[in-house]
Amino acid sequence: MSESSTPIVVEQSFDASKPAVWKAITEREQMVQWFFDNIPEFRAEPGFETQFDIDAGRRIFRHLWKITEVIPEQKIVYDWRYEGFPGSGKVTFELFEENDGSKLRVTNEGIESFPKDVPEFTRESCEDGWTYLLQDNLKHYLDG
C-alpha cells in the first residue's frame, strides 16, 4: 500500500460519555457547533444524503454526503464526494469507551482518488483538517 492510499486516521479522547459524543457527531444541532456550520439537514441513517458548500478561500467545494452504515453509539460511515470533482472517499467515525470517557477514531479512505492538483485534496491538508476538527473543535465543544 503506498503512502497516498494509506487511510488517514485521527483519534481523540474525551471526558464525555459515548452517548454524549454520539449525539455531537450525529445530531445536526450539535454538528453545526463544531463540524460545519451550514449542514442543512442530517440524519444518522443509511441512505440519508445531504449537500452543502464550504468556502475554502480560493474556491467553494460542494460536499456530497451519503450515509452508508450506522451502528448506534458505535459507528457511522459516510460516502464523501465533492460536486464537480472525480473521486470518492469513505469516512468512518468509530466510538469506543475509554476509562471514564470515550475515544473517537475517524478513518478517511480514498483521498488518492481525488485530483492530485487540488491543494485541498492533499494528504497533508486532509490530516490537518481532521486533526483540527477533532482535537480542537470537537474537544472544545464537548469540554464546554
From TrEMBL:
InterPro entries: ASHA1/2-like_C, START-like_dom_sf. Belongs to the AHA1 family. Gene3D superfamilies: 3.30.530.20. It comes from Stieleria neptunia. Residues 16-142 form the Activator of Hsp90 ATPase homologue 1/2-like C-terminal domain. This is Activator of Hsp90 ATPase homologue 1/2-like C-terminal domain-containing protein. The lineage of its organism: Bacteria, Pseudomonadati, Planctomycetota, Planctomycetia, Pirellulales.
